[in-house]
Amino acid sequence: MGKLHAAIDGRIRKFIEEQRMFFVGSAPLDRDGHVNVSPKGGDSFRILGPATVAYLDYTGSGVETIAHLRENRRIIIMFCAFEGPPNVVRLHGRGEVIEPHEAEFPALLGLFNPDPGVRAIIRIDVDRVSSSCGYAVPRCRFEGQRTQLAEWASRKGEDELKKYRGEKNATSIDGLPALLDLEADEK
User: Fold this and answer.
1) Which of 184, 114, 180, 137 is nearest to 19 (CA)?
2) How far apart are CA 53 and CA 167, in angstroms?
3) What is the per-residue pLDDT across 66-108, written as a single tens digit (0 to 9) for each?
4) CB atoms closer than 10 angstroms to residue 126
5) What dotted CATH number matches 3-186?
6) Which residues lie closer than 8 Å to 38 by C-beta, 6 or more apart?
7) Residue 174 has what DSSP assignment?
């Protein structure tokens, strides 16, 4: 049975901090637009307060979450227990995209371990924290984090990453604007 929680604290906080991956969901306002769900891993999630979280957004072939947040700020984060007792925690909220050219980016980035290829930080004001049983979530054994993304970003270097973002991350698949710093990168 589902349960609402007043904040990200106690058992909810501990559960979130123990998870090795999470899922991000977002959608455009256009009912014909594409809903997006993205898996995230690594040491990329931080709890900033009882109703505020942030995660690293890495350079990738798509940019849906950023575009959706620019349009409407709606976002959900879901954590599932694949090991241990079953549990699912969802964080609903309003997100904002913080790009490297913005003043608050360095301080937020300092909360994370260095990682190549970060294109933005997503900060979320959480307005609903819920948990549910997770009985249908399968058990999966964690074998380790993948290293390919960091290796790919390191090989590319910052100039090639900027070029890649300009080609792949300017707009969503529905044509919504995404990364704003692309123009600054070209100057």
Assistant:
1) 137
2) 29
3) 999 999 999 999 999 999 999 999 999 999 999 999 999 999 9
4) 23
5) 2.30.110.10
6) 23, 24, 25, 64, 65
7) T
How many H-runs (helices) and E-runs (strands) does the chain carry? 5, 8
Per-residue tokens: 70? 């620019």
Evaluate if residue 35 carries a pLDDT over 80. yes
Q: Letter for the amino acid at 23?
A: F
Angle at 166 (CA atoms; ends 46, 31), nearest 5 degrees: 70
Helix ranges (DSSP H) in 42-81: 64-72
Measured CA to CA, the distance from residue 174 to residue 159 in angstroms comes to 27
**Would you state the structure tokens that stand for residue 176, as one six-digit string?**
């919504």
Distance of CA 184 to the CA centre of its chain: 23
Report the C-alpha gap between 123 and 135 in whole angstroms: 30
pTM as predicted: 0.95
Q: How far apart are CA 187 and CA 182, in angstroms?
A: 9
pLDDT tens digits for range 4-26: 999 999 999 999 999 999 999 99
Q: Hey, what are 58's tokens?
A: 């890495």
pLDDT in the model for residue 182: 78
- Extract the tokens encoding 27: 């959608």
